């Protein structure tokens, strides 16, 4: 991605099967919601990925979707954020998160939201704070599964250089 962290690229529809395989590991552990393979193809443009060594399959991904809230406000939501266990702690997640925040800023998002059932260490280190779900985009917040016990986090996107 031009101007973004090295090694992060926008997904293409041809990445759909690999994104589904990567995500399924986290679905089985309960960390992610199950999404049909077709969704990854239909929403490929929302996904940012980091590929494995020598152009291998993606080892991490995150999706960013924007929501219009009223006439003047746009918010962004991060979803389907996952990094292979072998690559956690190597900067893959930080690069994906940085790229997603820059993309949210480029889209003029007022705030960036995410939900997690796990530890939120990376989000907290990157300036996110826990917030009530009611503060998030209504359409997205209503779709959260209350049985999963997700916590919602938010932060403002970074200022873009002029």
From TrEMBL:
One Pfam family recorded for the sequence: Acetyltransf_7
Biological processes, Gene Ontology terms: L-arginine biosynthetic process
PROSITE patterns the UniProt entry points to: GNAT
Residues covered by the N-acetyltransferase domain: 6-145
Superkingdom in the source lineage: Bacteria
Coiled-coil region(s): none
The keyword Hydrolase is annotated on this UniProt entry: no
Keyword list, A-Z: Acyltransferase, Transferase
Keyword Amino-acid biosynthesis: no
Gene3D superfamilies xref list: 3.40.630.30
GO molecular function: L-glutamate N-acetyltransferase activity
GO cellular component terms, A-Z: cytoplasm
InterPro entries the UniProt entry points to: Acyl_CoA_acyltransferase (IPR016181), GNAT_dom (IPR000182), NH2A_AcTrfase (IPR010167)
Protein name per UniProt: GNAT family N-acetyltransferase
The species this protein was found in: Peterkaempfera bronchialis
Lineage: Bacteria, Bacillati, Actinomycetota, Actinomycetes, Kitasatosporales
